[in-house]
Write a structure and sequence with these properties.
The chain has helices at 5-27, 38-58, 65-94, 98-106, 114-140. The chain is 74% helix and 0% strand.
């Protein structure tokens, strides 16, 4: 990939929006409800969409499906990495009672370690990244269909 600045920048902005959304939920006491994590997928999807769209506008002659997919994966991976680090710091240093309340809301019925929860957050973010990148590239790929008269 010729230019990594664009996906890194969009990844950092996406992670900032994810962190801000989490902190707004924490402000209202809703951050322990796992249902609100669905909005994280929409935020990640939008960040990946914007990164791929800007890349296609900047480099239309070299843009391909593979390049767009790489840009989406890098953008989402950086956003996931930064948000996962923030989540780890929040769950261990900022609010130590966050994980027990979260686990009670999830009704798992067993004690879990912070490492497992952070691993789940990272896997969810990476899977959202892959699915979002593949989905967005369906909008930006070039068609090989022939137009018949």
């Amino acid at each position: 990939m010729k230019n990594l600045v664009l996906p890194i920048r969009f990844g950092l902005v996406t992670s900032a929006v994810l962190i801000a959304y989490f902190l707004v939920l924490a402000l209202f006491g809703k951050h322990t409800n796992p249902a609100f994590s669905l909005v994280n997928a929409a935020i990640t999807l939008f960040g990946i969409y914007e990164a791929i769209k800007i890349s296609k506008l900047q480099f239309p002659e070299t843009f391909s499906y593979g390049e767009g997919f790489k840009i989406g994966v890098v953008t989402g991976s950086i956003a996931t990495l930064v948000f996962t680090i923030f989540f780890l710091v929040y769950a261990t240093e900022i609010n130590a009672e966050f994980l027990p309340v979260l686990l009670d809301n999830m009704n798992w019925g067993f004690k879990s370690h912070v490492g497992l929860i952070v691993f789940i957050v990272a896997i969810m973010g990476l899977s959202t990244t892959l699915v979002s990148s593949l989905t967005v590239m369906q909008l930006f790929k070039t068609s090989n269909n022939f137009v018949q008269n």
